[in-house]
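## retry 2 of 3
previous attempt timed out at serialization; input unchanged, resubmitting
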Amino acid sequence: MKNNFYLLLFLSCVQLLTAQKINTEKLNQYFDALEKNDRFMGSVSIIKDGKEIYSRATGFLDIETQKKATTQTKYRIGSISKTYTAAMVLKAVEESKLKLTDPLSNYFPGIQNAEKITIDNLLNHHSGIHNFTDDKEYLEWHKEFRNEEQMVALITKAGSDFEPGSDAQYSNSNYVLLSYILEKIYKKPYKKLLQEKIITPLKLKDTYLGDFIDNAKDEANSYLYTTKWSKTTETNTSIPLGAGGIEATPSDILKFADALFNGKILSQESLNKMKTIQGDYGYGLFQFPFGTKKLYGHTGGIDGFASVFGYETNDKIGFAVTSNGVNMNINDISIILLTAAYGHDFSIPDFKTVKVDASILKQYEGLYKSIQMPLDVTIFVENGVLMAQASGQSAFPLDAVSETNFKFDMAGVEIIFNAKEGTMTMKQSGMSFQYKKQ
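## retry succeeded, writing output
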């Protein structure tokens, strides 16, 4: 649900062949390594031709009680919920309950530009409606119950960021409004609609709109990692609804995906509309490259949960990752799953780091500024670990590769220090930024 989604940039150098027998043993070794090194807690699944060919769970659903996760453990899937909501909106169109050209003013006339904003604009993030989760105040009330009246008032007050249809910008507000519109046209709560339109027809046993997390129901808490795993706060699911409130297993996500992309939920015409990408966005879908292949799917993030799924429609291969604690780039896990699904070999990282003397770490402490980047970065030592914190963001730990080189795998960040010159170089996504200590 957080607006920190990204398009997956998969390796393009591999020559992809038709899917071969999956190396289950090596995949298990890979996830053993992630678990041993506190890199990933969660569950994964791979399907081929509608059949699950690999599943695995690692870590704990609750660290305090040491309750281990299983492949039946449910995770909040964040913005993957939007794919379900988009499918239900298009189902409503097929049932003549709604038109893609209908203006938002039919339902919420008080929202800025409501007469210009269409259902289509909401589905593919071309509405211009401000994304409420971008505001700092959101974290002050995200744990509290919010009803439709309160959420619509908040979205109305936030206004518009651009003229409808003139640009594309991801906004959770769009899908919260779509959730309310579904409730209005069917005169039923979103939770019941999800059950009737998706869960019951597809016989999904481990999918539902979330409530308060209950470990006794095999629902996972979420965690963030600094020097150890720490439990996060819990967003009240009355806020995101169909924008980010669904809980599921990766196996259930792929059952839904396989049904969606093979005509078991929508007509081919409706599915084609979902898959039409405009300004990076389809209807509840992104497009992910993997070599010469193109997958459709979505990412998700809410509290400490992170998730992603993708489906290749020609080969009928799909993967899903649900996590309640990730201390690396989840994109790397996705690449491994797809590489294995297509029968290719892959390397298991050793996650080796070096021990750097505290006196050396202290030399790097300070405030760093760059003329290339608006974000200042503070470097400090906490409990013997070098930490970095960009202005307005949470602090994160840096793993030492050498006495001068450090990394933060979760965001693909590498930092190289020069204590003598009082500088540091930050590398990310193929870009390099120079910083000077103040």
